[in-house]
Amino acid sequence: MKNQRKYLTIATLASLVIAFIATVSIGAPRLSKTTNHKRDVPSNLKQLNTALLMYAQDYDWMLPPMKSASGLKAVLYPYVSDVSVFIDPKSQEPFQPNPSISQRHLHEVLKESFRRNQAIFTFYQTPAQNNDARYVCLLPIPDVKFVKEVPDWADAYGSFLECKTKIVSKSQWEKLKKASDIS
Questions:
Q1: Do 161 and 119 share a domain, yes or no?
Q2: Same-domain pairing of 91 and 10
Q3: Residue 1's domain spans which residues?
Q4: Do 34 and 68 sit in the same domain of this protein?
Q5: Which residues, 6+ apart, have CB-to-CB distance to 39 below 8 Å?
Q6: Cβ pair 79, 63 in contact under 8 A
Q7: Do 71 and 27 lie in a common domain?
Q8: Contact at 8 Å (CB) between 43 and 54?
Q9: pLDDT in tens, 21-69
Q10: Kind plus residue range of the DSSP H or E element containing 83
C-alpha cells in the first residue's frame, strides 16, 4: 500500500510536470509574437548600444563603421539576439547610428564628451515623432577622474557605459547634432 502511494505520487507529479511543459510550449510562440510587437523604442536602442559596446570590447574599444544603418547592422548582427532591434517598431524605419563616432576609439569619444560637457549619442530614431521629439541613446558624460586615469579606464567601462535612452525635443536634438557635426 505504501509503495502504491509512492508510485501514485510520482505519477501525479510527472503528469503535472508534463502538463506544465505542454502548456508553456504551446503558449510560448504566441507569447513571443506578442512580446516582439510590444518591444518599445527605448528597449531596442539599449540593446543596440549594448551590442555596440560588446563589439568595441572585442576590438580593443574601437567603434565599428557607423556611416550607415545597413552597414552597422551587418557588423553588429552577431551581438544581438533578435534582428528586429535594428528597426523602430513604430515607424518600421531603421535606427540611425551617429556617423561622427564611426571607427573611433571609445575613450577618445568620451574624452571629447567631457571636454565639450555634452553627451554624445550613439543611435537615434528617425523620423521624429509627431511633436518633433525623438528617442536617442546617449553615452554618459564622464567625470574628471575617469578621463584622467587612462590605465584603468577599460575596466571601468562595464558599469559606466549604460546608455541613457531618452526623448529629446527638437531644440535638444539640434544641439546634439551640432555637437556631433551632423547636418
A1: yes
A2: no
A3: 1-38
A4: no
A5: 84, 85, 89
A6: no
A7: no
A8: no
A9: 555 555 545 444 434 433 589 999 999 999 999 999 899 889 999 999 9
A10: none
- Contact status, residue 88 vs residue 133, Cβ threshold 8 Å: no
Question: Which class for 174: exposed (0-12), middle (13-18), buried (19 or more C-beta within 10 A)?
Answer: exposed
Provide the Cα torsion 140, 70, 73, 141; round to 10°. -10
Closest CA to 137 of 86, 91, 93, 90: 86
pTM for this prediction = 0.72
pLDDT tens profile 94-151? 999 999 999 999 888 888 888 888 888 999 998 888 888 999 999 887 766 655 655 4
Please tell me whether residues 97 and 13 are part of one structural domain: no
Grid coordinates standing for 26? 504551446
Q: Determine the straight-line distance between the first and last CA of the chain, rounded to whole angstroms.
A: 83
Q: Are residues 25 and 64 in the same domain?
A: no
Query: What's phi and psi for 182, nearest 5 deg?
Result: -110, 130
Do residue 22 and residue 91 come from a single domain?
no
Q: Hey, which residues does 12 pair with through a beta bridge?
A: none
Query: Among 32, 109, 118, 103, which residue's Cα sits nearest to residue 72?
Result: 103
